[in-house]
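Re: Re: token formats

Sure, here are both.
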Amino acid sequence: MTTKNDLLKTVFFDLHLKKGAKMVPFSGYELPINYEMGIKDEHLYCRSKVGLFDVSHMGQAELVAESYDDAARAIEAIVPGDVLKLQPERMRYSCLLNKNGGIEDDLMITHRVKADGSHVVGLVVNAARKQHDYRYIQSHLPENIDLKIDEERALLALQGPDAEKVIAIWCGEAVGIPYMSEIETTFFDVPCRVSRCGYTGEDGFEISVPNDQALRVAEMLLSHDDVKLIGLGARDSLRLEAGFCLYGHDIDETTSPVEADLSWVINKRRRKAGGFSGAERILTELEDGPAKRRVGLLPSGTAAPAREGALLFAEDGSQIGVVTSGGFGPTIGGPLAMGYVLSAYASLGTKIDVEVRGKKYPWHVTEMPFTPYRTYNAKQPTQH
């Protein structure tokens, strides 16, 4: 049994307490679920201003080889995305796959250009899975590829419509970098990596900094009147409104990317050539369709929020699926959910009954995201 004393702490632990955080266990860490504003107001603040998230519990690592191509080919054995042709300083969301085509984790992969000019494959994995992921990746690497785990770096996510305006004060090089890209730079005078990405559906950046400089960077950001700390509670409702998966809930070792509506992670070259774990199942599902699909769900009238585990029923009363993530969406002002249904019931507009506390409510399949993405489009000027 894990006790409070067993929980790990990020370098921002004292800062969280100072700012009035309610701390909870999460993925083996003691992390803030919310601050004084509360979850709903933190959610709305991130949608309107700028939220700062401590995501230092995530795993940061690199694959190092004689060439980037060697490292890319190695990771391509267990992910379905095109890492080999990923351009320098660009990044890609992908899935770590097992031999049965299930998802061991979802992760970010970057063609990283180091300060010394070398090229490596950068990885960011989920906190709850990072030790598992490291062992899994290592077990599939040839001897000439090194997995270097970096536990001396913290990670901050700056998210919201004014994120670029804020980061420009201390890191002008980050202004205008494309969505899903990363640069090695400095934050004021602190060496760092800045990537334009996030898991909220808003524009934003993730800033990876050495642990011994991390608090200083956070305090600089928080000195801006528009920046507020945001906790895990709002982080979850933000990602749910964006239709993003949470590992261990919406995806797991048995779920394929096709079932999870993540087919877009498998590019044309990989679909043609295969050569990745679970390719037989995944390519068959791409061709013939999967037995079930992840869908977005909204109530068709007044309904209580549907939580994870709520059962889904067809109009004839037969059970057809289950909710995997659900709650209240502050931006849309009502309940929303994601779940899996038999593929015959996955079409937009399909009527589905959701059972909440023994009572069935009418819902329907809807498009995701539930709120429009506002991630940065490099073809357009930044709006300040």
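Second one below.
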Amino acid sequence: MADSALPPTLPVSRADALHRRGLMLILSSPSGAGKTTIAKRLLAHDSQIEASVSATTRPIRPGEVDGKDYHFVNRATFDAMVEANEFYEWAEVFGNCYGTPKAHIRARLKEGGDTLFDIDWQGTQQLYQKAEADVVRVFILPPSIEELRRRLTGRGTDSAEVIAARMARAQAEISHWDGYDYVVVNDDIDACYTQICQILAAERLKRARQTGLIGFVRELTRH
């Protein structure tokens, strides 16, 4: 490829001036609405975003990697982290604790890196209370309850009782849709993914996140 065909690059000084603060992108949805598929696509195709890695007290499972799947810690360590206010949010589920550590995410925000969260509405509320300005909340809805039931049944992995329980939980989760900044209906996975990419692009361009703009504009208007 000839040099003239290469995409233009910003001079280092200008790139520094246009530095932005990162963001925390939350994807929530009832089971079967497509959240996991979309999250995997984002992580595979967008180098600026990485998945949040929770700390947990549950035992490591075969095939899992400490620091990649979870940060595995004992209960005493977890309790000490809670006492030191080191989590954005945490909860105990079936005897095991799960929490979102602050330190790494805060460093990424400062460096302009984004973090993806796959959490429910309760975790979303906790995260928003702690880091409101950095949080972007997206809720994914199924096109209909009938379609959601069809998707859950089509997996072929759950009994009728489990599906009924999932459906009841789904409707309870959907009732919290108005606690989100954006709501996207997933009636087509490609279109839904595109919409979420557009949301992410727009949020990255918000003036409040362009931390270098004041100095950059000041330089432009200098006489």
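Residues 1-14 have pLDDT under 50 and may be disordered. The CA atoms of residues 91 and 98 lie 6 Å apart.
- S.
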